[in-house]
Description:
Helix content: over 70%
Number of helices: 21
Number of domains: 1
Order of helices and strands: HHHHHEHHHHHHHHEHHHHHHHH
Amino acid sequence: MAPKSGFLDTLLTSPSTERYRVGFSFLFLLGIWLVVGQLSSGMPNSMLLMAAAVIGGYMAINIGANDVANNVGPAVGSGALSLGGAVLLAAIFEAGGAIIAGGDVVSTIKGGIIAADRLDDVNAFVWLMTAALLAGALWLNLATWMGAPVSTTHSIVGGVLGAGIAAGGWGIADWAVMSKIVASWVISPVMGGVLAALFLFAIKKTVLYRQNLIPAARTFVPWLVAIMAWAFGTYLMVKGVKKLVEVDFLGASLVGLAVAAVVFVAMRVLVGRRAATMENSAEGVNSLFTWPLIFAAALLSFAHGANDVANAIGPLAAINDALSAGAVVTSAAIPLWVMLVGALGLAVGLMLFGPRLIKTVGSEITELDKTRAFCIALSAALTVIIASQLGLPVSSTHIAIGGVFGVGFLREYLKYNYATQLHKIMEQHDEAEQARLRPFLDDFRNASVEEMENLLKQAKKKKQVPLSKSERKRLKKIYREEMVKRSHLTRIVAAWIITVPASALMAAMLFFTLRGLLM
């Protein structure tokens, strides 16, 4: 269970403070306008650059508000971190990742989805990138308001695609690249969900379903955390610091292996010490995953800041270079002020508007404890590693949300499977014993998946009585629905499907508007 809300949690989520949070975000954007105005004084088209900088800051705020929830949501939902603590942790590591490892040069045409050489007009290129940036930001803002975590990469991809088609026609788009992006809508969540479910099932079989949990935890938990350490060590080398240190996959794996060895020894000592006072229960095992979850949230945030800040500053850097050099650019140097707009915008957006999505990911889709959250974080790192080696395009947002749904559906399957087993046992007995059955059913309905197995063993020994057919149907429906909220599943999947088309359509409309106003 998550800790009670503190002062910072209330400050970040209370409706009474929303107008102040909105006001602060406007002040941040005003500050960008004034600072960039000073920096671009005397430069041709300085007003256009100032407007683009404000839009880039707005995009960064929305990335922080929407995408970062996937990194810290499970840790908050499981109680490993308070909401306020998670926001502060993620804000620091997101900004740190953006500034330290965000790189000096960024691709301006995200993912190579349009051919920049087909655009000879510098003004058209600037309008294209401005429209793409604003469309991506508007779509993210709408998705955050709806409570739907979506891919910020897909948002800006859709924006560039729509504005690019508006500027250069249908032939400007690389539809082969777009088909890979569409494929990632399925690949990302499925890989994340399957891996998270497999790890959770493995933990249940090796630890949680054992009668003596403490000896099982001493044996298996250090190995599980060491696997996570290898995954995150490799993940950071492959994705998080690739712009600082260029290593191949073998080198990254060896770094991850060294980290895993150190973590394994440390966890053996820690679990050995905790065993003397640890509860012989699932809660006792859960407590062992607290610090691994905190480190996972920090490292995921760092890697996210290093990678996804480009979604905000890539188009802005392109506009800055195009206006300065008077030419269309496919890669752009990142001035310090552009990087700061992205890094600070991520932190501001997370702190002011991120808690809504953090709660959605952490507690509203399915109930998470530390073990389930650990499996989600581990699957996120492993999925990125596997996909990068296979050359598959994946979204970190889709992976994390897929992991949440994966553990939820596994719990639902197990509980439903236990219910089916109970019905079969009950059907062997007559109706005269139904009165004796009801207290047992009440206990069974309120039991966790782990407790249900013990109740089933009791049922087999005591030969409990079956429910009626209509009651069995109702009970099955309850077990299907209660573990994963279908309303969230429907809303999130719908938002994923329409992200690229929606941002593309908005970007095309904005491009024509800008061209009409500025020609």
